Amino acid sequence: SPMGTGPPPPPRPAPRQLAPQPQKAANTPFDQPSLALQIKGYMETGCTLLMYGKKGSPHFRFFFVETTAANPTPRLYWCRDDSERPTAAAEGSFLELSSVTRITIGKTPELFPSLARIESDSNKQPATDDDDYYTSFVVHYLRDRHEPKTLCLTTESKAEMEAWVIGLCGACQINPEYGEKLGLKEANQKAGLGAASPSPVRAEGAKHAMAAPSMPPPPAISKPIMGEDGSVLSRALLDGPAYHHLAMYLQSDLEIKLCEQWHVPPKVWLGCKVRLQMMAAKIGKVADESNNKPLIQLTPGEVRQLFPQLDIFRANAVWEVLAQIALIDRNPDSISYLLYASE
Question: What is the pTM of this model?
Answer without folding.
Answer: 0.75
